[in-house]
Amino acid sequence: MSVLEQNFPVVQKKLSVDLKGNKTDIIICSYDDHFLVIATQIGTMGTILHARKDADISVHPTFSVSVIFGKRDEPMLVACARQLIEHISSSGTSQPLVLSLGLKDHSAETLKGIVSAVTENRLW
Fold this sequence. Notes:
single chain, alpha+beta, 7-stranded mixed β-sheet, 7 strands, about 25% helix, globular, Proteasome assembly chaperone 3, proteasome
């Protein structure tokens, strides 16, 4: 179940999904200049990543993803951020993404479930 809250100054959606037996809380916020997605199975922020579309200089867009805080040796977290920024970019917006992943399970299946839940409930 997702809840859209517009009376708060920031438009946001909150939802919970079960991913491989782990309750995963997801919050999606749309700010004027970026999107914030928090996905947690541990009740805290976890690793924080920043993803953005690079300036268009060719037909094929490129994207930059960097770890701001947390685990730098988890390529699956970077892949998750990249998939989400590609979805955001393909919708026509160039706003960057700040993604927080506080997960017990870093498997590909869990991260695909997060990407799927976020894109189904997107605010872009």
